[in-house]
Amino acid sequence: MMSGSPASSTSILVTAPWLRDNLGRVKVLDCSWHLPTANRSAKHEFARAHIPGARFFDIDTIKDLTRPDLPHMLPQPAFFASAMDKFGIDNHDHVVVYDSAGVGPACRVFWTFHAMGHDNVSVLDGGLPAWTAQGGETEAGPETAETSHTTHSYVAHPDQRIVCNYADVIGAIEELKASAGAHGRQIIDARPHARFTGAAPEFRPGLSSGHMPMALSVPSSEMTITTDASPAVLKRPADIRAAFEAAGVDLKRPIIASCGSGVTAAVLYFALLNAGVDRSALTLFDGSWTEYALNPHSEIIIDTPTKSNSN
After folding, report:
1. Fewer beta carbons below 10 Å: N end or C end of the chain?
2. How many C-beta atoms surround the C-beta of residue 24 within 10 A?
3. CA 258/CA 291 separation, integer angstroms
4. CA distance 307 to 296
5. CA distances from 121 to 6, 9, 19, 98, 117 (A)
6. SS3 299
7. Distance (Å, rounded) from C-alpha 97 to C-alpha 280?
8. Per DSSP, which regions of 34-73 are E strands?
């Protein structure tokens, strides 16, 4: 985790004190987002209070607008580049992303930057709550006017190696089944365990809960702890590794991260990177459970609770 001035090698996790010392040398994005059932507007909350100079990255609008059935698919490269131009972000800028949850939707934007070939990006540990708890000032007001570059234009360089699609997931499931889980890319699911088992419903009406065959449940909440400063700060690398290993994940094998719509899966992606897992071993299922469960050909596993015998 960064504790000094900007270095040649970007740390993916930075602290509030570090950001306060380097605020004029980085570009900051507020990536807050809430589930529709929360009845909260991240954009309105941004207007009430955000880190000075931050711009609002709306994951509900900076996405693939041609897929209304899938809520958070990666935007087309040209569309992403246009958004970066409006934010005044260059390819070489160090971008710091944060959210109001502590460590949450910002990880999705972190992964999006990686998928667009922009590696100089970090997540603020503890997000806006940690910033304010440690004395960071905030400013109010809606987003400032769009910035247009006169001499530079952002160019996205997509990295498809960290993105997988439905066909990739089906292939991984078939390989896992054929080897009884011993070979192939492991599938880890970041949704709450009750949705994974099928005991709790999905948020989207009509969408089945349950899980993919051979998938492993690793709720994203297992990656963070609550502190006095923030509802969620990232666990230590050793504790992150222990959480995955306890769920049966072999950290030496390739991994596909999934969740409901691709947001909390990115928390697992980020946590694994911060715990030292090589990026070449990690991919994220962009459409995640929503895409999988909507496909009528998908096999959905519902775990039946074990009944205890009583005498």
Report:
1. C
2. 7
3. 10
4. 30
5. 12, 11, 13, 11, 10
6. coil
7. 22
8. 55-56
- Cβ-contact 249, 277 below 8 angstroms: no
- The three state secondary structure string of 143-158 is CCCCCCCCCCCCCCCC
Indicate the average pLDDT of the chain: 93
Interval 60-106: pLDDT, tens: 999 999 999 999 999 999 999 999 999 999 999 999 999 999 999 99
Q: Are 283 and 249 in contact (CB under 8 A)?
A: no
Q: Is 210 left (phi over 0), alpha (psi -120 to 50) or beta?
A: left
Hey, what amino acid is at 114? H
| 259 a catalytic residue | yes
Task: Catalytic residue, from 31, 107, 164, 259: name it.
Answer: 259
Coil, strand or helix at 111? helix
Confidence tier at 51 by pLDDT (50, 70, 90): very high
Q: Kindly give, in sequence order, each residue whose CB lies less than 8 Å from that of residue 2, ignoring residues fewer than 6 positions away.
A: 11, 13, 14, 15, 18, 122
Length of the chain: 311
pLDDT digits 0-9 by tens, 248-294:
999 999 999 999 999 999 999 999 999 999 999 999 999 999 999 99
- Residue 63: Cβ-neighbour burial (10 angstroms; 0-12, 13-18, 19+): buried
Q: Per the structure block, which two tokens stand in for 258? A: 């999934």
C-alpha distances (whole Å) from 164 to each of 187, 194, 225, 288 are: 11, 25, 29, 9
Strands of the sheet with 95-98, listed across from one edge: 13-14, 121-124, 95-98, 27-30, 55-56
> CA nearest 220: which of 263, 179, 254, 184?
263
